[in-house]
Amino acid sequence: MLAGLAVQSLIVGQAATVAAFGAAAVVFVVLLVAASLTVASISAATLLPMRMTGPAVKRWSGFVLVAVGAWFVVIAFLPSPIFGA
């Protein structure tokens, strides 16, 4: 997003970029407040099943992290179609 705003400042101008950045900041703040209010209003009965699945989520996220790391190692040794071999 910040890269898009930087390019926009070069094309459109600084005033439009500041306005776009301000709008994005307002949207982020509203989303964070809405998420925190939603989490605060969830009852304990609703949270219990989520807490029970915590270990499974951690285990699967570990597998995903290892798979992504392995993929990065694999593509590090593959020839790049953009930059050549």
Characterize the structure shown.
With 85 residues, the chain is mainly α. The protein has helices at residues 2-11, 14-41, 44-52, 54-77. Helix 1 runs antiparallel to helix 2. The two termini are 31 Å apart.
The rounded distance between the terminal residues' Cα atoms is 31 Å
Question: What string gives the helices and strands in order?
Answer: HHHH
What share of residues are in beta strands? under 5%
How many independent structural domains? Answer: 2
Q: In which range does the helix fraction lie?
A: over 70%
State Rg.
Answer: 21 Å
Overall shape: flat
Continuous helix count: 4
Helix/strand/pairing class, anyone?
mainly alpha
Q: Quaternary arrangement of the chains shown? A: single chain
Q: How many E strands?
A: 0
| Average pLDDT metric | 84
Give a short synopsis of this structure.
With 85 residues, this protein is mainly alpha-helical. It has four helices and no strands.
Question: What is the fold's blueprint, element by element?
Answer:
Elements: H1 2-11, H2 14-41, H3 44-52, H4 54-77
Labels describing this entry:
85 residues; 4 helices
